[in-house]
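Throughout our pipeline, every protein is held as a single compact record rather than as scattered files. Such a record has a labelled line for the sequence and another for the backbone structure tokens. The remainder of this section carries one protein's record, kept here as part of the documentation:
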Amino acid sequence: MYRDYFQLEYTDVIEMLENGIIENNFSLTQYGATVPCSVSGITYTTLSQVAPGITVGLFNNEGKLVARELSLTNGKFEINNIEPGLYTLYAVQNKHDISTPKYIELTSGNLDVGRIITYSSYYTQCIYGILLDEQGLPLANKKIKIKGNDDETSIINQEVFTAEDGEFLATLYLTSNASITFEVTLVDRYYALAAPISQVVNSGDLVELNLTGIKLFEPPKGIVTGIITNKQTGDPLINARLGLYKVDETGKETLIKLTSGATDGRYIFDEVDEGNYIIKAKTVKSYTS
């Protein structure tokens, strides 16, 4: 995935944001009123202070500058009327402090990228990799932490997430061109790296890592139990039918298990996966002949 994005040198980004011509051919007539995209966020300094007056630039997948805006007094910025596609977002302050790139895909509507932090930087170092499980399948949405330092003053401390195809890309901006010592860790509850990664490279070299994630254990199963009672009398409901429904992030309910309450109203669902659930119940009328 990340190989699909156009890579820009630090000096090129600075020059284009200062003097570059904006090339944005987006047309509302061509795409229709419902398709225009926008991107927003807030600019910060490394001291976690809101930074107004920061130049924010959006580059397309050909390396062309398509939009340029200044952040407001509250640090917020918004770039509107952008054509759907792959883009890279940068923020620059004082002609030399620059953010790490934000690789984004715009499809429709607004994309909030959150915090954009500018760093004092002069040299670029890219660390590209792919994270696979023991069977060679990609591990998506896993946090990769990269820590270390160079021989001078730059401190490396960055977290990135793997894409759907398991790829990740960390772009480091350093204050010197000295050699770099770094280590890579996988931050996850259920996976660990098959082997620790620690490496020394010359600044500017492309670093490519093939990582394997070892599954530590299966997510634990849970138990849901309780007593169902009559709302008016408080008495246990005998032989009630109960359903356990899993609720996803959209609010959709899916029936997972069915059970019957005991004569004292007790019920139990075992072997339940982690997640959000609701229980629905109905009484069963009994008849005698």
